[in-house]
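Technical annex, item 7. During the second reporting period the consortium partners agreed on a shared format for inverse folding records so that results from different sites could be compared directly. Each record opens with the tokenized structure and is followed by the designed sequence. A conforming record, contributed by the partner at site C, is shown below for reference.
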């Protein structure tokens, strides 16, 4: 099985902490599954710290962008992922494989006035 994980927010505070802990524990528990980590170019060496069954794929699409709606599904197809884990609530509608999405909170939906624009709110709701 090949599991792809979106690790582009690895350096963020809350979601980044979740991603770092998830990867650290997966690397301790699972040496058989192949993991493909979508990460920013500056995190390209991440897999070397995790194990032989982890590898990184650099992804330059910004989180919460229209660009990621197309680039992530293309990368999933190219990598032949069996399962995709999206640790931040944005799952592209064209995702070509089974997926798991983590929703850490919905405060931005409850209080849209704290989002930068109405477009950001529409994107979050979608």
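Designed sequence (site C submission):
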């Amino acid at each position: 099985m090949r599991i792809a994980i979106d690790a582009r927010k690895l350096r963020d505070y809350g979601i980044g902490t979740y991603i770092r802990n998830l990867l650290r524990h997966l690397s301790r528990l699972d040496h058989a599954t192949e993991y493909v980590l979508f990460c920013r170019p500056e995190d390209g060496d991440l897999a070397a710290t995790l194990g032989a069954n982890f590898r990184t794929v650099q992804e330059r699409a910004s989180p919460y962008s229209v660009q990621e709606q197309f680039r992530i599904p293309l990368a999933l197809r190219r990598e032949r992922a069996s399962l995709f884990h999206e640790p931040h609530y944005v799952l592209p509608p064209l995702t070509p494989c089974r997926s798991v999405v983590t929703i850490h909170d919905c405060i931005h939906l409850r209080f849209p006035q704290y989002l930068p624009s109405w477009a950001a709110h529409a994107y979050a709701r979608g």
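The longest helix spans residues 14-29. The mean pLDDT is 91. All partners now use this format for quarterly exchanges.
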